[in-house]
Design a protein that fits this description.
Elements (H helix, E strand, L loop, with lengths): L1 E2 L6 H11 L19 H8 L7 E3 L20 E6 L1 H9 L9 E5 L7 E3 L19 E2 L2 E2 L12 E8 L13 E3 L1 H11 L8 E5 L2 H8 L13 E2 L3 H7 L4 E4 L19 H10 L2 E4 L4 H10 L3 E5 L10 E3 L3 E3 L1
Helix pairs in contact: 1-7, 4-6
């Protein structure tokens, strides 16, 4: 791990864009990017990883007490009952018998809590993945690179890389950035390989830190945050992974390592806008990590489909890791 203050200059950043630019790789009409690396054979192989029948939900609760305290325009989900037990009781007292019911509604950003970023989520110099222009995302949603393009693709072999476990800690400090060499060391230490079409989950342990203190720390309010450094683009792209998920709200380390070069969100730009890699955020990896450490198996079948919201640029999910 490196200090969050590590600097990455514009030349290095632009070199990574040029190296991992997948625009046109799967045709001018492609809208799923690196999910093209996920194959039917890979799904079959992932199914063979199910040996214990244990299922882990990797999702945070969708409720008012979530981590989005101060990240406008996003906010924690608001769940309301449109008909509750009091309504049933009232109707019963009025003489209604037999079948009765309750109902509810939720108001929330599609990128609240555990979620996927769609390829339409990130632009750089007014272009998103595969060179599509700003006009393709308008008030009705995304016409290109929408989250629904991945509706049947988010299934395959999952691999968990538990970075703080490398140094025997429960979590990284808030000012640490994960670099490519850390992920490589994780693979060696855990005895697992990351390959083409894999879904890679990276644990920082910051959700465990929040549970330990009983409150969401400053990193959940757009302050400094542990996360992936720019160099991890080389790890993921060289291995042709399908998608990447992290247990933080931003995926990448904050402040951004390219801040001095005037570039925000460098890893989002490289991975989402150019390589076409979907990013998952706020994945709860703690229970899964404990099980992987116990049985020594860091691979599993992952099932994490998005909601089919037409034109969405992100989606809440309840990822399932099955071992």
């Amino acid at each position: 791990m490196t200090s969050i203050g590590k600097k990455v200059d514009r030349e290095t950043f632009e070199g990574l864009i040029e190296r991992y630019d997948n625009w046109g790789r799967w045709g001018d009409d492609d809208e799923i990017g690196s999910l093209n690396f996920r194959s039917a054979e890979g799904v079959v192989a992932a199914a063979r990883l199910v040996r214990k029948g244990r299922v882990f939900s990797l999702a945070l609760p969708l409720d008012r007490d979530g981590p989005l305290r101060d990240l406008p325009p996003r906010f924690n989900p608001i769940h309301l009952m449109t008909r509750d037990g009091g309504d049933v009781k009232r109707d019963h007292e009025r003489g209604e018998r037999g079948f009765q019911w309750v109902d509810d509604v939720i108001t929330m950003p599609l990128q609240a809590a555990t979620q996927w970023d769609a390829l339409a989520h990130v632009f750089y110099d007014a272009k998103m993945y595969n060179g599509y222009p700003t006009d393709d995302v308008h008030s009705d949603g995304a016409e290109r690179n929408a989250m629904t393009k991945a509706a049947d693709r988010m299934v395959g072999r999952g691999v968990l890389l538990d970075v703080p476990r490398l140094t025997g800690r429960p979590w990284l400090e808030i000012d640490e950035a994960i670099e490519a060499e850390d992920l490589e060391q994780c693979c060696r230490t855990q005895g697992v390989d990351v390959g083409e079409g894999d879904f890679v989950a990276v644990r920082t342990g910051r959700l465990a830190a929040a549970r330990d203190t009983g409150e969401w720390g400053p990193e959940f309010s757009a302050g400094a945050a542990a996360g992936l450094g720019v160099s991890t683009a080389e790890f993921f792209c060289d291995r042709n992974v399908a998608a990447v998920a992290v247990d933080t709200f931003s995926t990448e380390a904050i402040p951004h390592q390219t801040a001095d070069a005037g570039i925000e969100g460098p890893l989002h730009v490289i991975l989402v806008a150019y390589a076409g890699i979907h990013l998952g955020e706020f994945w709860d990896l703690d229970e899964l990590a404990a099980d992987c450490a116990e049985d020594g198996c860091w691979e599993f079948m992952l099932v994490a489909p998005p909601l089919t919201v037409t034109g969405a640029v992100g989606s809440p999910i309840n990822p399932q890791a099955i071992k």
